Amino acid sequence: MGARENFPITDIEALNPETENAIRQAMRAGFSPLTVEPPMTLSEFAEKHFYLSAESSQTQQRWVPYPFQPGIMDAMGDDRILEVDVFKSARVGYTKMLLASIAYDAHHKKRNQALWQPTDDDSDSFCKTELEPMLRDVKVMRKVFPSYLKKSKDNTLRLKVFLGSLLHLLGGKASKNYRRITVASAKLDEIDGFDQLIERSADPWTLSRKRLEGATFPKHIIGSTPRVKGLSHIEGRTLAAQARMVFHILCPHCGLEHPLSWGGEDKQHGFKWDKDDPANVWHQCHHCHGKLRQSDYLRIYKDGAWVSECGNWRYGVDRCWRDAAGMPTKPPRHVAFKIWTAYSPQATWAEIVESFLHAMVKRKAGDKGPLMGWINETLGETWEDDEAEKLEIDVLKQRAEDYRLRTVPAGGLVLVAGVDVQGDRWEVVVWAMGRGEEMWVIDYCVIPGDPGLEDEWAAKLDPYLRSTFTHECGVELGISAVGIDMMGDFTHQGYNYTRFRESSKVYGVRGDPQPGQPIGAKPKLQDVNFRGTVVKRGAKLWYVGTDTAKDVMFSRLKVRDPGPGYVHFSKDLPDAFYLQLTAESRVPVSTARGVLTRWVNVNRQRNEVLDCTVYALFAAYRLALHTKTDSAWTTLQKKLHVEVPKQPRPAPAPAPEAPPATPPPAAPAKRRPARPPVSPFASDDWSNRL
Predict the structure, then answer these.
(1) For residues 204 and 188, is the Cβ–Cβ distance under 8 A?
(2) Of 171, 595, 608, 684, which one is least surrounded by beta carbons within 10 A?
(3) Range 35-242+332-347: architecture per CATH
(4) Known catalytic residues?
């Protein structure tokens, strides 16, 4: 040790310059997590530090925000706001705002964060082309991310470890990517590109929200260009927001506020253009219908403000949340911003109109793709096909007949049922099937109870499913087969119920929305109960091709005349039955295979009746009713003592002078005494369940 024993620790000047510099850097880095930056908003942080990188920007330069961007960014950084949704078109700079938010949380607030992209590939691409150039070019980030130039366990495509915080970079398809991480800021980019349910468990918003539990200042940021109405995650989140914000400008003619809106041919406000010269475009004020050119807009939009649809909040150039009276107020806990391409200087209004006219020409030629893209990417709205297949409620109600519920008309020969499981009830629809798959609604029942209690299943469902229904001929019919929904929160309770009733044709089913799947596919064994214990003889789970089943049901509902394929309704049915049966429509959806059509609950209505009907169709297919020959139906009718309809024969044309003979009155049909009902749980042969 020698002379070094008396070396003063603080005498850094005695060291050589390289060692001195290394020690100073190490000390600064070590103490940096303890430093506190002067308070600043996200927009202030970005204006001071943010930089546009060459790899991901048209120009490489210091960040200069558009007037509508600071309001969105300040909401992203405001600890008083829990949720921020951005319902947007393309070309409004959202990705840059999101990058600035990542830098702000890492450098200024030092909070753990996670960013989910729709897929792992999307996440990797974002990291390489957006995030890593930002970490390199925003110089202030080097203080908290010194390893930006080298690959290490602290600098990968999946994880960035900063001084005092970290960032997870994840794909959104696998449920495992939402586990075992704890963050204060959860960000989801392009959420409409995520699956509706992540591996059949929950939606991406719910799964990512769980990662915030316990955070002192939790923050949930979700942004996306919308896709299909009814399937849009960002639309659903925006509708749930406490305040939905739209950017308003002051009309130079009347001095009143209004947003930029597309308008339309039937409206006096919005975008208009010279039909002979579409490049001559202007926007007409909502109030005075005064003309505003894009050059006028770019001169005045710096004085614009975000105003909520309800009028209770505004955020303007003073960067302060105010109420309707103009007084400072708390911001909403959940705020959504809606912005589209016309607000951005990156696109000219003439380009917007030109692309719209091109899309309309394509649509008239039968190609809806360009118009769908224009509505999503430029207008920033969800796509809804006005030519989508829909079921009309009034038309179905007018077909209702006089037969009573829980009675089976003469043509109904076999009963099947579908059961949908909800949090506080079971809903059941019973259908009678006849020759040529003609169908009658026999009953619609809501059974209250707690599906979370295993004993409740047998106590509530068995009495109903074992009950009988009086046929017109006097025979009591039992339900021959049942399909019970196994999706949701009560899967294992359902498995334990159906496991011991499969021999009685009580099936646990689950919808498979993939196109082209059969209504009744092969089952899969589910061998773990709700306690996690392996069951040697696991319950069978049958997958139902829901799109296929709905196609079949939709085509039958369009049959106009009683007979094969016709669907009969009782006048006893409530309006809710028809509303739920027609809750979905077939609309185009963007998929990896291109634009396909899917059955979608566009208006997010209750659809339990439709689900029950799909499961009942599955039960009918399990009984192979669609393959029964005419002679098999005749045999069944004879068992029920139902008169078998004779096949009509062409009668010879009567002589013109001779009046047609009056047929003798038909003898009354003999009816045997009704036999005692046989429980549908007593036999596997569908023809003996009568």
Answers:
(1) yes
(2) 684
(3) 3-Layer(aba) Sandwich (3.40)
(4) 190
